[in-house]
Amino acid sequence: MKHIKWQEDLQQLSQARLFHNVAPGNLKRLLTEFRACALAAGEVVLSPFNRNQHLYLLLAGRLDVHLGSIDNTPVANLMPGECAGEISFIDNNCPSAYVVAGEPSTVLRLHRDALVGLLRQSPQMMQNLLELLCERVRQGNRIILDTEQHANIDTLTGLYNRRWLEHIYVRESTRCAFNESPLSMLMLDVDHFKAYNDTHGHLAGDYALCLVAHTLRSQLRPKDSMTRFGGEEFVILLPELGENDARPIGERLRVSLEQITSFYSPLGVLPGVTVSIGLAQMRQRDSLQGLIARADSALYQAKQNGRNRLHG
Ligand SMILES: Nc1nc2c(ncn2[C@@H]2O[C@H](COP(=O)(O)OP(=O)(O)OP(=O)(O)O)[C@@H](O)[C@H]2O)c(=O)[nH]1
């Protein structure tokens, strides 16, 4: 972070939330405590591992907020006029998130030593700061709710769910298209599962679904994505494999379940299950829906042909 010379623009600054309704004369005085700094793209401004002493007001560029790890998708992007670091600036603690310059940026930075004096000078700025803090608390609560309600994991099997499939498909299909490599999809459905539930009970059905999930997942490569698509349906994405290479893999998965004629569960020994599989390869600019529709019709054909088989 480099200190730079900066030409004050009171008009622009009065638009920032922190300075809303602060009288121009007062604002000019307050600004003497701020230092302008330039940030390079990717520069870490705040990290949970470093105690923060500053409040940052973004003048130009973009700051990205990451939770947990810098590699996670940002949960928020801060734009000019917005602040960062206000919570840790006030409680003199470590920030709870990473804040990273998403592009070359300019910030105004205020050291916490100046805080008490400044707040005494401008109760309006204190009120603005409190409002910013309230907004951050509400944002945090929304993120918690969002995470709980839309988690990407299926609680029964521990596999990713359909929501994740939508996310991962964008990434994998783009990557494969860019590298001019194929991508295949297997859609699996447990055979006669209604009868299995009716005969052995719904809980037994749940254990059978877990058996399918764990048996198949353990045979896949890390880059393959297996998701629980719906009740007794699963979708597997096989990046970098065309139909001809994906077919023996699907067949191997099918046989591995066929060979488990019974398994241990907390309910005692239960019979195994078989699956029917539909196979489809991504076409140019295939949407997820398009690819699913073709894998689904191949699955329908596998069912028509007698179940416990692969079609496509
Ligand atoms: N135990 C259990 N059963 C589920 C779950 N989700 C869906 N099911 C059941 O899966 C069954 C699916 O039945 P159907 O769609 O008729 O299909 P099927 O009996 O497998 O017949 P085919 O697919 O044609 O072989 C329904 O009875 C659902 O209640 C679940 O999470 N746990």
Summarize the model shown.
The chain has helices at 10-13, 24-31, 86-91, 115-121, 123-149, 162-178, 193-200, 202-217, 243-258, 288-304; strands at residues 2-3, 34-39, 44-46, 54-60, 63-66, 76-78, 83-84, 98-101, 105-111, 160-161, 183-190, 225-228, 233-239, 262-265, 268-271, 275-281, 310-311. By secondary structure, it is of the alpha+beta class.
Molecular structure report:
With 312 residues, the chain is an alpha+beta fold. The protein folds into two domains: 148 residues, Jelly Rolls (Sandwich), CATH 2.60.120.10; 152 residues, Alpha-Beta Plaits. Helices cover 40% and strands 24% of the residues. The strands form four sheets. A six-stranded mixed β-sheet has the order 10-12-13-11-16-17, sandwiched between helices. α4 packs across α5. The mean pLDDT is 92. The structure holds guanosine-5'-triphosphate (GTP). Guanosine-5'-triphosphate binds next to β11, α7 and α8.
Number of helical regions: 10
- From the spread of the alpha carbons, the general shape counts as elongated
Mean pLDDT: 92
Gyration radius, rounded: 28 Å
Biggest sheet, open or closed, and with what strands and sense?
A: 6 strands, mixed
The amount of beta strand, in percent, is: 15-25%
Helix content: 40-55%
Secondary-structure element string: EHHEEEEEEHEEHHEHEHHEEHEEEHE
CATH class of the largest domain: Alpha Beta
Q: Please state how the strands of the largest beta sheet are arranged side by side.
A: 10-12-13-11-16-17
The CATH superfamily of the largest domain turns out to be Reverse transcriptase/Diguanylate cyclase domain
CATH topology of the largest domain: Alpha-Beta Plaits
How many domains would you count in the coordinates? 2
Bound molecules: guanosine-5'-triphosphate
Poorly predicted spans:
none
InterPro entries: cNMP-bd_dom, cNMP-bd_dom_sf, Diguanylate_Cyclase, GGDEF_dom, Nucleotide_cyclase, Rev_trsase/Diguanyl_cyclase, RmlC-like_jellyroll
Protein name: diguanylate cyclase
Catalytic activity: 2 GTP = 3',3'-c-di-GMP + 2 diphosphate
Pfam family, one: GGDEF
